[in-house]
Design goal:
The protein has two domains: 137 residues, Glucose Oxidase, domain 1, CATH 3.50.30; 204 residues, Rossmann fold, CATH 3.40.50.880. The longest helix has 18 residues. With 353 residues, the chain is an alpha/beta fold. 25% of the residues lie in helices and 33% in strands.
Length: 353
């Protein structure tokens, strides 16, 4: 008899094995990454989602905290074909429901054909299929999580000093730790600010560049971040990654839309329209920019032509939809952070003159 059930919005209820008990719900998504499960499970962009791993064995090199992208597990639950005891014990300790012994190929195919959908999980002794269905029926759409930023952002400002090569104001909408380290490794001082900071909060750190981070959910719900972008547009260089690209585009007159099932994995090909060079990238997003406003499209996804890079020389803006810092994934695009600090350095030179 099964001790775990997965209920999907399309009416299917799948039997599974409980590896970490609990009942929960969230938007069902999948990642194609075959390594980096620790990074994926601690990526704040997975908040309010149920993460399915398409790769069949998760946990074959253990669990090490130095690989974490945040201090805790972020998805509401995890699904795999096979979870090792190390990962199962980690998730149980974090009180995150986890199940395996399920056909993840069927789940991935369902999401690809029908889109990301509501999902309910019930795992542990005495659970029933009805328990999972009840969780699924109570699941809210991602757009209804209007204050999701509060779950993933710092509560108070924090400073990561590293030599003062540039002063970066980073709006933390759910930032991966490796974004901060990618900047500090290049000598930047990074002021990590809460997602709902005001323009006055940003001005108080006297930044050379404004950086809007990745994060979960609908970019239209990050109203405060858009107001900060609007306040400094044309006066302060700006950069953004993932949700950050969407927030900046929306604030400058563009718009975003929800994708059918998004891009999540470490093998997304991106073409630079200026050089015709294609790089492989790490991605984790369910929304995309559909109207770029005054920003120029400089990079596109080879698979579906969605916007992957936006620039504006006039406004000193550079954004990427993918994750240049990788972790996990290829390091083809790490040069993005050098470009960000070049923007900051140019502002310093102008200010000094």
């Amino acid at each position: 008899m099964s001790d775990a059930y997965i209920a999907l919005a399309d009416g299917c209820v799948l039997e599974a094995r409980s590896r970490a008990p609990g009942r929960t719900r969230g938007e069902l998504v999948f990642t194609t990454a075959y390594t980096g499960y620790e990074e994926s499970l601690t990526d704040p962009s997975y908040a309010e989602q149920v993460l399915t791993f398409s790769y069949p064995l998760i946990g074959n090199y253990g669990v090490r905290s130095e690989r974490f992208e945040s201090e805790s597990v972020q998805p509401r639950a995890a699904i795999a074909r096979e979870l090792t005891d190390d990962v199962a014990e980690w998730l149980a300790g974090e009180e995150i429901p986890a199940v395996d012994h399920v056909d993840t190929r069927e789940i991935v195919t369902t999401v690809r054909e029908e889109g990301a959908m509501a999902c309910g999980i019930a795992a542990g002794p005495d659970v029933t299929p009805e328990d999972a269905v009840a969780e699924m029926e109570a699941c809210e759409p991602m757009s209804d999580h209007v204050d999701i930023g509060a779950q993933v952002s710092v509560a108070e400002p924090a400073v990561h000093e590293s030599g003062g090569a540039a002063n970066v104001a980073l709006l933390d909408c759910g930032a991966k730790g490796s974004i901060i380290s990618s900047l500090t490794e290049r000598g930047a001082d990074v002021h990590v600010l809460p997602y709902d900071s005001t323009p006055e909060d940003v001005a108080a750190v006297d930044p050379d560049v404004l950086f809007v981070s990745n994060g979960p959910g609908d970019p239209e719900n990050f109203v405060a971040a858009q107001e900060v972008v609007e306040a400094f547009a044309g006066d302060l260089p700006m950069a953004g990654i993932c949700l950050g690209q969407q927030v900046i585009a929306s604030a400058l007159g563009g718009s975003t839309e929800k994708m059918m099932f998004g891009h999540r994995g470490v093998n997304q090909p991106v073409k630079d329209l200026r050089t015709d060079r294609v790089v492989m990238t790490t991605q984790n997003h369910g929304y995309t920019v559909d109207d770029t406003g005054p920003l120029e499209v400089t990079q596109v996804n080879v698979n579906d032509d969605t916007v992957e890079g936006l620039d504006s020389e006039e406004l000193d803006v550079i954004t990427r939809q993918y994750h240049p810092e990788a972790n996990p994934g290829p390091h083809d695009s790490l040069g993005f952070f050098d470009e960000v600090l070049e923007l900051a350095g140019a502002r310093r030179r102008v200010t000094a003159d």
